[in-house]
Amino acid sequence: MHDYKSLGFVGLGVMGEPMCKNLVRKSALPVHVFDMNNDAVGRVVETGGIAAKSARSVAENADVVFLSLPSIDQVETVTRQMLGASAKPRMIVDMSTSDVARTRALAREVNAAGVAYVDAPVARTAEAAQKGTLMISVGGDERDFTALKPLLDCMGSDVLHCGPLGSGQILKILNNMMVFMTVNALSEVLTIGRRAGMDGEKLLQLLSQGSGDSFALRNHGMKSLVKDQFPEKVFPTVYAIKDASLALALAKEGGFQPRIAQYTYDMLCHTRDAGYAQNYHPAVIQLIDGRVKVAATGPTVAASGTAAAA
């Protein structure tokens, strides 16, 4: 069991804000919070959080600091700011999705300053972040994991120790890559089924009863693909591109050239270029089924009814 007396949280975005609120409510410890968005800080303060003026201020007042930031670029910047604080935290926990090689390099820098470092990226939806039912994949020392788990349990229902530092990022990155590839596969299946004369929603409902069932089918497929609903602020295409690029970087480091993952990444880039950068990434189906065509001069919208040729 941990003996931490105070916590910190930096990064109150779509996932970070509800995660931090759960930490505030359930940990029974003071939680010092910082984000550039003052409104987000205010909402967390309303639930019991303590506003800080900077990431450095968080570090000076917390035993453990959790980070939920857009990428490793911001993680490196914020972490180095905290290492320059007059008092350092005992541990920094990166809950962002970050490049593995840079995560390991940053951890060595943090450890050299006498601070422990753990990677603990999260998976599942913004709704899961609100409910505290995230999957959290943790990479780091077994003792650090044991001490952290009661705190991570405040934010996730499935907290998994994946192995040494960086292992949590590997699992998260490959989990997301699998989802993106599955969404592409579902888009192709839907297109084939619709053009053969079958209702898309009925098709996925029946597929969910067989061996082709998956979380992506029931979530991304039924809630987004068949309904043609690709809202903004729900894991946009540009986020998917970032995570897919991390998976390709891992493959390259291992001397492997993936075909399906590369095709999926390329299609996500085409989706971004077609004007759906901020839309929920299953918007890729519109390119796969031919409604939106990417020409040499840029994206063009196909004639009305192409997708519903069946």
TrEMBL record:
GO terms for molecular function: NAD binding; NADP binding; oxidoreductase activity. It comes from the Bacteria. InterPro entries: 6-PGluconate_DH-like_C_sf (IPR008927), 6PGD_dom2 (IPR013328), 6PGDH_NADP-bd (IPR006115), HIBADH-like_NADP-bd (IPR029154), HIBADH-related (IPR015815), NAD(P)-bd_dom_sf (IPR036291). Keywords: NAD, Oxidoreductase. Residues 7-163 form the 6-phosphogluconate dehydrogenase NADP-binding domain. It holds the Pfam family NAD_binding_2. The active site is at 172. Residues 166-287 form the 3-hydroxyisobutyrate dehydrogenase-like NAD-binding domain. PANTHER family: 3-HYDROXYISOBUTYRATE DEHYDROGENASE-LIKE 1, MITOCHONDRIAL-RELATED. This is 2-hydroxy-3-oxopropionate reductase.
